[in-house]
Amino acid sequence: MSTIRIGELEVNRLGFGAMRVIDNEDIWGEPSDRKHAIKVLRRVAELGVNFIDTAESYGPQTDEALIGEALHPYPKGFVVATKCGLSRPRPSRWDADCRPEKLRKDLEGSLKRLKLERIDLYQLHTVDSKVPFEVSVGTLADMKRQGKVRHVGLSNVTVRQLEVARKVVPIVSVQNRYSLSDRSSEDVLLHCEKHGIAFLPWYPLGDGAAMKRAKVISIARKIKATPAQVAIAWLLKKSPVMLPIPGTGNLAHLEENVAAAKLELSDADFRSL
User: Fold this and answer.
1) Domains present along the chain, CATH in parentheses
2) Is 203 a catalytic residue?
3) Kind and range of the H or E element at 113?
4) Which of 58, 74, 122, 178 is catalytic?
5) pLDDT tens column, 174-197
């Protein structure tokens, strides 16, 4: 598996998004089978994946606690990334709350649940229109100066917002929605390429519609892969700064996704998609 740099950290180029180990539509509360969720997380590390992404808001807080229980003490070189700045007053709500006091509270909780003294990659989950963006980013910069955060990342941002943030603190990663079927963040991806910033596409398989396209199915048959593996292989070939983090609560799907890192699309197949 090839590698990618996030700041001075080097990780394998296919990560794992842990949100879906909480296997309900609202990502609320406990997984239906806690033992199985722990088994999936441990299998992630066994398969050689050494970058895992989570957030305080998943559960809320449950996802981080599961990771701490399953994987601590973490294998050498294993990077846990988490996110702050969303409030979950009830299952159907994901409300931006990037006030400095909320972000500081999120960090202290994440450190405790993940059993860490420092978060390797701490990401602002969203932009809060009620709080000046520079203030929210500045709070993460303070955390970095205090030694509680190693690197700062952003999620769900525009190129302009990324540039504003980079004037406050070095930004090593951006996590925006991106897939075969949704390339609306193409400008952000290109900006990340230009500046050597890792790009983490969330929802990397989209809503599944792309995997039903005749071209995807045809390529999958030709290279003896699944359509989902083709979609992941396309992301890996799309950009050298791309770090896909497909997530699942299913062991078979996990192994299928990780195997996609070994696939190499031909230039012709890549262009056709």
Assistant:
1) 3-207+241-248 (3.20.20.100)
2) no
3) helix 100-114
4) 58
5) 999 999 999 999 999 999 999 999
